[in-house]
Amino acid sequence: MLVAILGTGSVACTIALRLLGAGHEVVLGARNPATATDRDWVRELGGKVEVVSLSAAASAGEVVVNATPGSTTVEMLIDLDAAALTGKVLIDTANAVVFGESGPLLMYPNGSLAERIQQAVPRAKVVKTLNTMNTAVQADPTGMAGPTSAFVSGDDPEARSLVTSLLHDMGWPPDSVIDLGGIASARGPEHYFMLFFGLARALGTRRFNIAVVR
Amino acid sequence: MLVAILGTGSVACTIALRLLGAGHEVVLGARNPATATDRDWVRELGGKVEVVSLSAAASAGEVVVNATPGSTTVEMLIDLDAAALTGKVLIDTANAVVFGESGPLLMYPNGSLAERIQQAVPRAKVVKTLNTMNTAVQADPTGMAGPTSAFVSGDDPEARSLVTSLLHDMGWPPDSVIDLGGIASARGPEHYFMLFFGLARALGTRRFNIAVVR
């Protein structure tokens, strides 16, 4: 499958590496493709991935991943040619957070970025996932002391299944992915960012994840 | 230790049972003590706990636990005699949530009930804990398939230590309690309510908890 990843930062390139490792093709989309190829994370991809404009990437991808900063994602998507995303699964991995004096603040409290994205590009099938853990965990989903969890939220059940399948390709074991349901359920993983932030500070590392245990 | 628990619902009575089991004394505080003794949860305590007014309980307790609904906790505490709480550890277990058409809404988004309580009763030492799991888990912290986590937040380190010690008494194993730091860190566990709610719906049970895995 040809996956377009919007963004050239650590999340974009970590996901790219996992997808390449599973045999998928990847294209990266950047605001400035010419300068993005010089970024450290893109260099680590070893020239195996082309960097094109955001619009060109979105048009090329069979599936599109948002790995741009959540604080500017909605504006970025509105600027894209809407036709590029029509009918496609759009995977949103971002946290829409600004940092205030007292710590992080959610941009969409009691709502979610994922819902805003679904409203902005109604003809795409938005699925939220992978926003609840750092790239250290995305790069090595089974590298912790025990199994941990990932979540998917989206209004289209087939889109959630496709994303779950891609997560398995990226190393998430069969029982690790929890289907939370419709796109409004993305409020859960997005609000969890506040606990993620507090845990990262308390533990002194971002290499951790939560497991849902029954 | 004599622990006053404000509230007579499932959380109040579950915590009462665990504390009694560890050898502590408990008194319950109710708006209407006369009618509260007839409530199912209070009956299950088998007459081992006296039910008095909220003010009388707060005055009597060496440690005070808030197990009243989070949506009205601040007003309830302001109505108490402030002297009753002066210098005491006040454990807050509540979630300040209202239910809208689209699901639960946090009353203090990008803030926390715990911080509001600390502002309302500045001479108490507020510690947030136990708001991240259902009473089924509070009643049996080691009854799941594997170890899970509890959190403490509060500005006074000694108060956090005392609450951690009470959690151990209530059955939480040594490594299960994560100290998140100051009272503003309660934003994490309080925002987690949105994910708790979504997980409960997706899993079809409230008998689950999260484990932080490194």
CATH secondary-structure class of chain A: Alpha Beta
For the largest interface, the chains and their residue counts are: A-B, 45 and 45 residues
The major β-sheet of chain A equals: 6 strands, parallel
Taking pLDDT < 50 over at least 5 consecutive residues as the criterion, the unreliable ranges of chain A are none
Q: What do we call the CATH topology of chain A?
A: Rossmann fold
**What would the principal axes of the Cα set say about the shape of chain A?**
globular
Radius of gyration of chain A: 16 Å
Structure description:
The structure is a homodimer of 214-residue chains. With 214 residues, chain A is of the alpha/beta class. Chain A has a single domain, classed as 3-Layer(aba) Sandwich (Rossmann fold). Chain A is built from ten helices and eleven strands. Chain A has a six-stranded parallel β-sheet with strand order 3-2-1-4-5-8, with helices on both faces. In chain A, strands 6-7 form a two-stranded antiparallel sheet. The first copy, chain A, has a two-stranded parallel ribbon with strand order 9-10. In chain A, helix 5 (73-79) runs parallel beside helix 6. The first copy, chain A, is globular and about 40 Å long. Chain A starts with a strand and ends with a strand. The A-B interface holds A 102-103, 105-106, 109-110, 144-149, 151, 153, 178-181, 184-185, 187-199, 201-203, 205, 207-214 and B 102-103, 105-106, 109-110, 144-149, 151, 153, 178-181, 184-185, 187-199, 201-203, 205, 207-214. Strand 11 (209-213) of chain A pairs antiparallel with strand 11 (209-213) of chain B.
